[in-house]
Amino acid sequence: MIDKLSEALHFQHQALRLRHQRQDVLANNIANADTPNFKARDIDFAAELARAAGREGGRKTLELNQTSARHLGASGGSADGGVPQRLYQMPEQSSLDGNTVEMERERVRFADNALRYQAGLTFMNRSLQGLKTAMQSE
Amino acid sequence: MTLFSLFDIAGSALNAQSQRLNVSASNLANADSVAGPDGEPYRAKQVLFEAAAQPGVAGVRVARVVEDPAPPRLEYNPGHPLADEQGYVAMPNVEPVHEMVNMISASRSYQANVEVLNTGRQLLLKTLTLGEG
């Protein structure tokens, strides 16, 4: 029963978690907008979400065979979603100090991500309300 | 990565940018200080930013404050008490235009990070009331 409940919210949970992590990465880009040689990074949200959803959905992603306890896993993350891959952004206009943060794009990405995070919260709220309604007696 | 790491990140940037503003203000204030405590003319200072070295995202910090190695600006003023035998006074190597540009850039970055902080705060407040509606 509780399994079913958590499964109903699982996808939204993964999406919100990724949005939150992406927000941190983007905030870090904005924080380092004046740091020489800083390279802007981002998370490929769609790919990461597909990865998180696919892994939890029973389909295992490709993993290395581990024959010793000291071998590192190659899946790039632990069970609970793990750390998403932070990819480097390609700058449109490079700057002299080697910094690849483009403030306008970062601000747009950040605002976009914040809005989608709110959308995720709304979806989550509605799912919770739906579950509550289903559980209540008339 | 905790729930509130966004505040650490944006906070570190606010801290670093305000230090940059302070250094700029100090440079402007001392643009005409011909003698410091050591008797030498004031030297312009610059902050060096670096990404805080941690696995994952960690914000920014001021690595150190360096002095501008440019030679002091010589001004011809034979009546000045600190003038040398040729009548030149060594003035600070502060470039007011550089400092103004630096100041504007720092204040813009500061604003951007305040915005990040505000957005993050709103989102967290909404997250905390999840399921109440």
What do you see in this structure?
- The complex is a heterodimer of chains A (138) and B (133).
- Chain A is mainly alpha-helical.
- Chain A has one domain.
- Helices cover 54% and strands 4% of the residues of chain A.
- Chain A is built from three helices and two strands.
- Chain A has helices at 2-31, 45-56, 103-135; strands at residues 41-43, 86-88.
- A two-stranded antiparallel sheet of chain A has the order 1-2.
- In chain A, α1 (2-31) runs antiparallel to α2 and α1 (2-31) packs antiparallel against α3.
- Chain A is flat, with a radius of gyration of 19 Å.
- The two termini of chain A are 21 Å apart.
- Mean pLDDT of chain A is 82; it is low at 76-80.
- Chain B has helices at 5-29, 96-128, and strands at residues 45-51, 60-67, 73-76, 88-91.
- In chain B, the strands form two sheets. Chain B has a two-stranded antiparallel sheet with strand order 1-2.
- Chain B is built from two helices and four strands; from the N terminus they run αββββα.
- In chain B, α1 packs antiparallel against α2 (96-128).
- Chain B has 133 residues and is an alpha+beta fold.
- Chain B is elongated.
- Helix content of chain B is 44%, strand content 17%.
- The interface between A and B is medium-sized, with 30 and 36 residues.
- Percentage of residues in strands of chain B: 15-25%
The radius of gyration computed from the alpha-carbon positions of chain A, rounded to a whole number of angstroms, is 19 Å
* Helix proportion range of chain A: 40-55%
State the largest interface: A-B, 30 and 36 residues
Kindly state the mean pLDDT of chain B as a whole number? 89
Count of individual beta strands of chain B: 4
Given the helix and strand composition of chain A, which structural class is it? mainly alpha
Shape of chain B: elongated
Which sequence of strands runs across the widest sheet of chain A?
1-2
